[in-house]
Amino acid sequence: MVHRHTLEDVDMPTQQTVLLVGGTGRTGGRVLRQLLSRGIRVRAIVRSGRGLPPDIADNPCLMVVEATLLSLSEEELQRHVRGCDAVISCLGHVLSLKGIFGSPHDLVARATSRLCRGVEALQPPAPVKFILMSSVSVNRPGRLDARRGAFERAFLWVLRGLLPPAKDNQRAADFLLAKVGPNNAFVQWVVVRPDSLLPGEVSEYASHEGLVNSLFAPGSTNMANVAHFMCELVTNPETWAAWKGKLPVVVNASSKLA
Ligand SMILES: NC(=O)c1ccc[n+]([C@@H]2O[C@H](COP(=O)([O-])OP(=O)(O)OC[C@H]3O[C@@H](n4cnc5c(N)ncnc54)[C@H](OP(=O)(O)O)[C@@H]3O)[C@@H](O)[C@H]2O)c1
Questions:
Q1: 257 in a structural domain
Q2: pLDDT value at position 257?
Q3: Total domains present in the chain
Q4: Going by fewer Cβ within 10 Å, which terminus of the chain is more open, N or C?
Q5: Separation CA 163–CA 159 (nearest Å)
């Protein structure tokens, strides 16, 4: 099933609140801007507010919490999660030797588990949406990504052994699939799998059930399109209904399909 999104999608005014982690990152910053431009209230947990663009610092819809996410106590985390309609994680390992091989190796998986457990502990009256920035290197279970052949699977297995961030992204998705599951009363989730990230504006893009390219002949995804898709998941009930409990692959419409 292929869903196409265009710039003509209708943006409904909303008073929803989103907790965003990784908002100082390349993709996270775009998510933050697009959420605010839709009038959504954002609580952003960041290591340093200096990483946020100065022109949005005074936005009345933005609340910045300067904290080290993984060091927050359970009570503190629950305080930030309380009252949120959705949680978006755009965390990623900083692309440096220290970022890739230094601790925490399990940044994305641990943040995912802590945030979801925090939501569950609060037992919200309606399920909270959890939206995870992931990657096409992440597998769907049961070999559902039929396009990934034996050689590519073996290559990824080695990569996960060598590169902690690759293993971390898979573990975060596995946690949502196996531990939170599809019928959780308090947390519903979508694992967003973009291809190679590019700068650029929001453009036409498509979301697919499974892989459409090989890791050896990658497609491309504008970070702005990832942000747009994540915002649609928050604000558009049809988009959410179509993708909850799934791992959509998001690629630019202009990206050549293999
Ligand atoms: N590169 C690609 O082509 C590609 C393709 C598909 C998917 N992805 C995945 O997309 C994700 C995001 O990529 P990106 O390029 O947008 O990320 P990015 O620009 O590197 O941003 C990473 C974010 O994570 C935060 N962070 C890093 N280490 C942290 C820690 N120890 N504690 C708390 N926060 C921490 C950073 O905060 P600070 O600002 O404080 O450092 C920043 O907000 C990654 O998981 C990556 O695997 C990448």
A1: no
A2: 64
A3: 1
A4: N
A5: 6
| Assigned domain for 50 exists | yes
* Residue whose CA lies nearest to ligand 1 atom number 15: 26
Identify whether 11 is part of a domain.
yes
How far, in Å, are 148, 149, 244 from residue 159 at the CA level? Answer: 15, 15, 28
Separation CA 105–CA 164 (nearest Å): 6
Residue 8 has a pLDDT of 44
Which residues of the chain fall below pLDDT 70? 1-14, 143, 256-258
Cα Rg of the chain (Å, integer): 17
Atom of ligand 1 nearest to the CA of 24: 43
CB crowding 90-113: b at 16 or more within 10 Å, else e: bbbbeeeeeeeeeeebbbbbbbbb
Q: Which residues contact 19 (CB under 8 A, 6 or more apart)?
A: 42, 43, 44, 45, 80, 81, 84, 86, 87, 88, 115
- Tell me the pairing of strands 128-133 and 41-46: unpaired
* Amino acid, res. 211: L
Judge whether 258 lies within some domain: no
Q: What is the CATH number of the domain that holds 132?
A: 3.40.50.720
Ligand 1: centre distance to CA 125 (Å):
31
**DSSP assignment, residue 217?**
B
Range of the domain at 58: 2-252
What are the distances in angstroms from CA 207 to CA 14, 32, 62, 250, 252?
Answer: 24, 21, 29, 4, 9
User: Which two structure tokens, joined as six digits, stand for 211?
Assistant: 């892989």
Give ligand 1 pocket residues (Cβ under 6 A). 22, 24-28, 47-48, 51, 68-69, 90-92, 94, 104, 107-108, 133, 135, 165, 169, 194, 196-197
Instruction: Write down the residue that tokens 């985390």 correspond to.
Output: 77
Cβ contact 195:213 at 8 Å: yes
pTM over 0.90: yes
